Structure formats: C-alpha cells, structure tokens
Amino acid sequence: MRQWVVSLPHRLRYLLAWDHKLCRAVLGVAVRAVLGFYRRRARCAGVPDGRSGAVTVIQRFGGGLQLNVHFHSLVLDGVFVEAADGTLAFHAAEPLRDEEVARLLASIYRRIQRLLVRRSLDVDDARDIDPLAEQSPALAGISSASIQGRIALGPRAGARVLQIGREPGAPWVTSRGPCQAHLEGFDVHANITVAANDRAGTERLCRYMLRPPVAQERLSLTPDGLVVVTLKAECYAQRRVMQSRRARRLYSREEARPSALHK
C-alpha cells in the first residue's frame, strides 16, 4: 500500500470547501490519474489489463486548525490481473521514482485546470464569481481567513495567527523530499508505504488518515483566556529557531475557528 497526498492551491481549497460537487470532481481527476499511472506502469512491465484500487479520505484541516481541503488516498502499490481461470494475481509495482511523481503531478495539474475551464471557474480570477460570499458572507470571510492563516474575527481581524517560536518574516520553505513534487500551489507526496503483510502498519496509516482535526490534549487555555493549540511538529520556518520546544498557535476564543465549520 502507498499513501498519496494531494494538496491544492489556496484559492482552490476555498472553492472546494463549500462546493462539494466540485470537490468530488477534483478528487476524481486526481484518483483517476494515479490509478491510470499504475495501469501504464504495469503495461510497460508486460502486465496488460491491470487494475489497482484506492480509498480516499478528504481532510478539511491543517496542523494548525486552518481550513485546508486536501486528499489522502491509500492506493494498492501495484495491480491485480485476472487469469484465464478467473483467479486474481497481484503484481507489485517497481519502486517509485521522483521524476515519475513530478510527471504525474503535471498531469493532475493540467487535468484539474481543464476541469475548471469546463465549469467556467478560473481560480486566478474567481473572486468575481463567489456564490458562497453571496449566500453567506460571514462564512465566506471566515473560510477565506482560515485558509490564509489569518484571524477572521475580533480586534486582530486580518492579522496572521500568532505562532510561538516562529521567526517573524521567515520565508516558508517548500519540501523537496523523496517522492514529492510541487507545482503552482499543487503538491503530491507519495513517500509513505506499508508492506502487504503489515496489518498493524496499515491500521496506523488508516487511523492517521481518519484522525480528527485536533487531539484534545493539544488544546489548552492561558490565564488571559487565549486558546493554545500545540502543533504536532514545527513548520519549516520554525526549525531554524526551535530546537527542543514544539510550536504553538494562539487564538482568542472568538478568533478560534474550526476547520470543519462548513460541511
């Protein structure tokens, strides 16, 4: 099994957060691209008519409780082929290469762009077409602020969420690790695998994909009433200035905004 994580540009996350039909369509594009990738690899290896399979969880949150619609897909790392007697045989895929992930991301990017054009949705110019803002301006404002990591309500509205341990003005660094690719806000990560006989590992990965936005033990209150969210791991910008303590985010009670506010 291999986990494929597909992340999206901020503006597209905003659209998918309230347009569930569009969210399913974008997910379909991504999953079909991954499954087609496995079929083509198998065909090149002399295994025709192979079929893989996937289970996807749509997550709506990021590590700091911000609204972040993205997809976690658990995919068979290979294909099944039906023999003449009707039995099925599994053919494991060859190790994944970084350049293959990059090419696949480029394909997903082009397909999603075509989907948006067919639906008359230009992500770059979509500010003029915002049904959510017309139907529910408050929800639209909160969702937009959450995706950008900014405060939506209260005296600090529009400001960035306070992060303890983050160097002010430090640049956000994009990961360039194994089996990962980034393009115009789109990102694919596929470096996590589980062996076929590792049932405990499969369960851990499934639990990770199905986890709630935040664990109760990561929430606390300061004496002056701020909500403290302890991040599971420091972000890239924080790694330069933090050695032993974990990063935290601060919200006032009125600023705190659940990522699953709109379902």
Describe this structure in words.
The protein is of the alpha+beta class. It has one domain (2-163, 174-214). The chain is built from 6 helices and 11 strands. The chain has helices at 10-18, 20-44, 98-118, 131-135, 137-148, 199-209; strands spanning 2-7, 54-61, 67-75, 78-82, 88-92, 162-164, 180-183, 186-193, 219-221, 227-230, 248-251. A hairpin with a 2-residue loop joins strand 7 and strand 8 (186-193). Helix 1 (10-18) crosses helix 2 and helix 2 runs antiparallel to helix 3. The longest helix is centred in the first third of the chain and has 25 residues, at 20-44.
Which helices and strands appear, and what pairs or packs with what?
Layout: E1 2-7, H1 10-18, H2 20-44, E2 54-61, E3 67-75, E4 78-82, E5 88-92, H3 98-118, H4 131-135, H5 137-148, E6 162-164, E7 180-183, E8 186-193, H6 199-209, E9 219-221, E10 227-230, E11 248-251
Antiparallel strand pairs: 1-3, 1-8, 2-3, 4-5, 6-11, 7-8, 9-10, 10-11
Helix pairs in contact: 1-2, 1-5, 2-3
